Amino acid sequence: MLDLSESRKKIDAIDEQIVRLFEERMEITNDVAEYKVKTGKAVLDREREGEKHRVLEGMTHTDFNAKAIYELYEQIMSVSRKYQYGLINRMMPDQDDVIGFTKVDEIRYSEDATVYYFGTKGTYTQAAMEEIFGTQIKEVHVPTFTGVMEAVRDGLADYGVLPIENSSTGGVTANYDSILEYPNAIIGQHVMRIRQCLVGLPGTHLNEIRTVYSHPQGLMQCREFLEKHPDMSGVEYESTAAGARKVRDDGDPSQAAIASERAAKEYGLEVLAPDIQTDKDNSTRFIILGPDCFYTAKSNKISLCIELPHVSGSLYRILSHFLFNDLNLTLIESRPIPGSQWEYRFFIDVEGNLDDPAVKNALRGIKEEAALLRILGNYQTASD
Fold first, then answer.
1. Residues 229 and 207 sit within 8 Å (Cβ to Cβ)
2. d(CA 32, CA 28)
3. Do 141 and 119 touch, CB atoms closer than 8 A?
4. Which of 11, 26, 211, 266 has its CA 20 to 30 A from that of 231?
5. 223: Cβ–Cβ under 8 A, 6 or more apart, which residues?
6. If we measure between CA atoms, which residue out of 224, 177, 186, 232 comes closest to residue 206?
7. Cross-strand partners of 90
8. Is the dihedral of CA 249, 251, 255, 261 positive or negative?
9. 11-15, 37-41, 70-74, 205-209: segment of lowest average pLDDT
10. Cα separation of 238 and 118, whole Å?
């Protein structure tokens, strides 16, 4: 029988050699990085790495070892690139080709600002907007997400407010798609508790309701209530408040809407059942859009959009930049890329400020290795 302790001693001796050689390799990597900085050569050289993989795999004697060596050196070369990105940032700290954002002392909201919001009067987005800006501003509601985006882009609005994520149902996917189509930046966020109600014509009883209108998010947030009332059929509508307005306009006692208590008052309806959301701590995160790419020293969350090369392992390699730089991801949402079947872009939120060295290192690596990187905003998650 083999002596396990002797085998372990041999492995320990080999590991010592591997560590020594790895550190020696990284010292040479430093020379390579300095050369690339001086010459402007890209850190990632796919042709060189591909050739290196082929040579190393050819040195092995089994198929398993060939695959293992590929994976091992994929990691070693990835670590080498990350080291080079960090060195470039140290040698060229003022280079801002990755960021594209302007730092300002603070972002102030004017009392006479014009703010566009999604939906109609009585919607949760209106309530969130007023919590952010107060009630002295000029409020303009539009029925689509893109209408808000266009108003900010075209200078009709100083700011825009849109729902982006719910604590129980996840991302508002239509907004993710539209954000990328416009040059606006996310400059802030606001989280608000959402208390959904079933609202209908005054004097209506629950057993009369057959059709319930609401935004898809509202229907999803109240799925258990609807399951307990099988006679009620949920119908998607443009917004929660618009659903309430339809119930008022139609005057049909068999109709109801899932909306806020505020919407019920706005359209002369009665709350038939309060707090019907499945998650009693139900909250929605709203984003504040501005026309300029600004951030401040207090900005502590970064929103990104990343498109990946359509090759095996590309998502893992991109996400490794966050792991290697000790950055915490708080959201990752995938969306199909229009016109590219089975290819996806990823919307990512990560904690940090664009001035942080770790953030700069990660973004430089992602920019070079991703098919597309766009910073959507760097903003403060909560007021002091």
1. no
2. 6
3. yes
4. 266
5. 278
6. 232
7. none
8. positive
9. 37-41
10. 10
Residue 117 near residue 141 (C-beta atoms within 8 A): yes
| Alpha carbon distance 373, 321 (integer Å) | 13
What pTM does this model have?
Answer: 0.82
- Quick one: tokens of 312? 């095996």
Listed in sequence order, the residues at least 6 apart from 239 whose beta carbon sits closer than 8 Å to its beta carbon are 118, 119, 120, 123, 125, 143, 215
Name the token pair of 214.
Answer: 């609401």
What pLDDT shows up at residue 94?
59
- Tokens 């290697």 label which residue? 324
Which candidate, 248, 280, 257, 246, places its Cα nearest to that of 197?
A: 257
Q: What is the CA radius of gyration of the chain?
A: 27
Q: Which residues are catalytic?
A: 284, 286
DSSP 8-state secondary structure symbol assigned to residue 205? -
- Find the mean pLDDT for residues 214-220: 94
The two tokens of residue 245 are 């307005």
Dihedral over alpha carbons 290, 288, 346, 364 (to 10 degrees): 50
Residue 384: which pLDDT band, with cuts at 50, 70 and 90? very low
